[in-house]
Amino acid sequence: MTQIAVDLHMHSALSPCGDKEMTPNNIVGMSMLKALNVIAVTDHNSAKNVPAVAHAAKGLGLQILPGIEVTTKEECHILAYTPDIESVLALDTILYKHLPMVKNRPDYFGHQYIMDEEDEIVGEVDKLLISATDLSVEALKTIVDEMNGIIVPAHIDRKSYSIMASLGFIPMDLKIRTVEISRGMSLKKARESFPVSPEIQMIQGSDAHYLEDIAEREYFLDVPDLKRDTLLKYLGYFR
Can you say how many angstroms the Cα of residue 39 is from the centroid of all Cα atoms in its chain? Predict the structure, then answer.
């Protein structure tokens, strides 16, 4: 086994709450400076900047785990990870169809920039990405399962936008293997505070919206290699 440094929850300038400096190359550059091994850019309900991030990381030894932070109809934030760029973009397309017809107001919520591999702005998403989709947690799990991906409930310790705040528990039939707790929450306190099965492992991510907030070498996984399939098997139950 190898101990690898990860940050599996961060936002690019595609998320309206993400800083404009959170460009693909800046994210990869900062992750390299901080000696991370694996990162996941998990924008709200979209993956349109994941290809540019993957391109920026090519040949650098930094693994990119394709992901999205999905808001379900219960207003749970769920991290969805997939095995490749094609599948995360397919999930992006599905999620867009399940977002309400609420237009983004950049002057109020912030811009939702789509960027290329040179950090050039090539478009903006018109729907407000921080809206809740009309997909339930169970429906999202089914969709991601069919893509050979996995889901991880995000920041379960928060009083809003978490599965514990919204549902009060983690449904057993979801067969969740991993949950995320917030930066700053100790694993010991999380175990004591939340009724989560001891079989469910807890991880942490930075939820960075600014470059300086990307994790240092502080969150680690013990895995044999950096392959995406290996990471997905570590994080989730496979059928």
Answer: 9
Given a contact cutoff of 8 angstroms between Cβ atoms, the answer to whether 55 and 44 are in contact is no
- Which of 88, 82, 8, 86 is closest to 45 using CA atoms? 88
Q: What is the pLDDT of residues 67-118, one digit of tens each?
A: 999 999 999 999 999 999 999 999 999 999 999 999 999 999 999 999 999 9
Identify the three-state secondary structure at position 186.
Answer: coil
For the full predicted model, state whether its pTM sits above 0.85.
Answer: yes
Dist. CA 224–CA 53, nearest whole Å: 24
Edge-to-edge order in the sheet of strand 77-81: 67-71, 77-81, 150-153
Q: Which residues contact 169 (CB under 8 A, 6 or more apart)?
A: 195
Q: Which domains does the chain have, with CATH numbers?
A: 2-235 (3.20.20.140)
**Consecutive H or E run containing 64:** strand 63-64
- Written as one string, the DSSP assignment of 76-120 is -EEEEE-SSHHHHHHHHHHHHHTS-S-B--TTTT---EEE-TTS-
- 3 state DSSP class of 121: strand
Tell me the backbone φ, ψ of residue 113, rounded to 5 degrees: -80, 130
